[in-house]
Design goal:
By secondary structure, this protein is of the alpha/beta class. It has helices at residues 14-22, 50-62, 76-84, 97-111, 114-134, 160-166, 185-191, 211-214, 223-226, 235-238, 244-260, and strands at residues 9-11, 29-31, 67-71, 89-92, 143-147, 149-150, 153-156, 170-171, 180-182, 195-198, 230-233, 271-273. It has a 5-stranded mixed β-sheet with strand order 8-5-10-11-12. A 4-stranded parallel β-sheet has the order 2-1-3-4, with helices on both faces. The longest helix is centred in the middle third of the chain and has 21 residues, at 114-134.
């Protein structure tokens, strides 16, 4: 870490706090996780009261930070207001694997730890390469659907298509850099996924109960439902940018491997089968 490294940093998002920790800033960071909400907010429907923003501004200003970090569209308005107050801010909204890799470099550059950030980005790239190496050469790529939000059913985009493809899946079709989108029954039946994975935002670990989702009209016709290939994966591993994404992808890869590639069945704290 160079002599220009910062000493007072405020992070409003756990994934960014974690990146700062990897860069050696654990003792310089004040976390404000209460302002981090992964629940999707439809565009133009931000109903948070003005005092919510005012309180956030007052708290952050009182710390006299040298850098404030925000993440995802839900925190864009906070970032804008901090910037108007004259604070040094960095807002990140990664939409691809490359964007996630860039997050390490951008946070490191802003905090004064460019070399450490470069190494972190290399570690991440190495993890992606390792995923690709584990995919059986010429092996079958199972059709995979992931769901990050269940009312209405919503498929994650962003880095998911590339990450799942690197892990060996034929992922549910998404547009390039599309963050997420509501999925219609007709699309599900046409794609007919062979594995369904729930990574529902706002839930903890593998606790999500998919009972309501499995009662949706028409879902009984889907291959994954008929074959009982339904799983929950810890959403903190896949829905947040960082090194944890590699562990989440390995969990998905294990699910595909034991169902289609002849891998032995393994227990993991990161995923569970939800229909026996």
């Amino acid at each position: 870490m160079n002599s220009q490294a910062l000493h007072r940093i405020v992070s409003l998002a756990p994934p960014l706090t974690e990146i700062l920790g990897y860069l050696g800033f654990s003792h310089q960071v004040t976390e404000m996780n209460e302002y981090f909400d992964e629940t999707p907010i439809p565009e133009g429907e931000d109903n948070r009261p003005e005092y919510w923003y005012t309180m956030a501004e007052e708290r952050v200003l009182s710390l006299r930070p040298e850098l404030v970090l925000t993440l995802f569209p839900n925190q864009w308005e906070l970032h804008r207001r901090f910037k108007e107050k004259g604070l040094n801010t960095l807002h990140l909204d990664p939409k691809s694997i490359r964007d996630v890799e860039d997050c390490f470099r951008l946070v490191g550059k802003a905090a004064g730890a460019g070399e450490e950030a470069r190494q972190l980005a290399l570690d991440f790239a190495g993890g992606i390469a390792g995923l690709k190496e584990r995919v059986p050469g010429g092996g079958y790529r199972p059709k995979l659907y992931c769901e990050e939000w269940s009312v209405p059913p919503t498929a994650p985009g962003g880095w998911y298509p590339d990450l799942m493809s690197d892990s060996g899946a034929h992922y549910f079709p998404m547009l390039s850099r599309e963050l997420s989108r509501v999925v219609r029954l007709e699309e599900m039946l046409m794609f007919d996924p062979e594995i369904i994975i729930f990574v529902v935002r706002g839930t903890e670990g593998t606790s999500f109960n998919p009972d309501a989702a499995l009662k949706r009209m028409g879902w009984e016709k889907i291959n994954a439902v008929k074959k009982r290939r339904l799983y929950t994966v810890d959403p903190a591993l896949l829905n947040r940018p960082g090194l944890r994404m590699i562990e989440g992808a390995k969990a998905v890869q294990q699910i595909m491997g034991q169902n289609f590639w002849g891998w032995p069945i393994a227990n993991s704290p990161y995923f569970r089968k939800v229909v026996d």
